[in-house]
Write a structure and sequence with these properties.
Blueprint lengths: L6 E5 L4 E7 L2 E8 L2 E8 L3 H12 L4 E3 L2 H8 L3
Antiparallel strand pairs: 1-2, 1-5, 2-3, 3-4
Length: about 80
Amino acid sequence: MNMKFPQYRILSNGKSWYEICSENSFNEIQIIGNKRIMFQLKAETYFEKIKISDMLAANDPYQKVTLEEFINEKLKM
C-alpha cells in the first residue's frame, strides 16, 4: 500500500477520532460523556492490523475526516 500518512478517520457514532500514523500505529481520541481521552496504539495482533486496514479503506463504520477536523476535536481536550 503506497499511502501518505497521517490519515484521519472518525467512528460513525462520533465517539472516536483517529490519527493513523502508519500501517501499524494510530492515535485515538475517545469521547466518554464530556471527557476526551487520547491514547496511542501500535498494532501487534491480527485484529489490530485489520482494524487499521479497515480505517484506511474508510470501511463502515469509519469515515474520512480532515486534519483540521481532527485538530479541532483534539483542542477540546
